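Incident review: delayed structure delivery

Summary: a single-chain prediction request sat in the queue longer than the usual turnaround. Root cause was a stuck worker, restarted by the on-call engineer. No data loss occurred. The affected request and its eventual output are reproduced below so the record is complete for anyone auditing the incident later.

Affected input:
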Amino acid sequence: MAPQNARRPSPMSPGQLRQAHHTYLEEMLFEAVVTAGAVVALADGHVDPEERARVVDLVERSGWLSTYTAAEAEDAFDSQVRQLEIEGGIPEAALNSVRRVGDGLGSRVVVCAAEEVASADGQIQPPEEEAIGLVRSALAPSAEQAGRPR
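Output delivered after worker restart:
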């Protein structure tokens, strides 16, 4: 009988595993950027076309999201806005998509997206500022994750 801890060889090469991991991280970041943008855009009760354009522009400019097209960013943003409108608020699932990015370098891209959407009309409204705070708090590591009390 083979030991239970025996490792089976992966059907993927190390290069394929690295690429799959990169793709996963990019998908996670894309979802978080789109979600943060949609949350902030809906904060004042009205989604302006310029807010959508800011998310699309950020995706196009970000080297970390290079595999996504403008059309994919538009579709994802519109879909997330519709979902948030249906759910009537910011569900935990939406915040979880932001939380998965964590507090690493990707979190800067997510916060940047939230801030750019909020400033799309030239002025950040109080509800948008609150939504940015919500995005930031979702990205902050919890005390348990950090291994230290707050």
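Verification: The chain is about 65% helix and 0% strand.
Action items: add queue-age alerting; document worker restart procedure.
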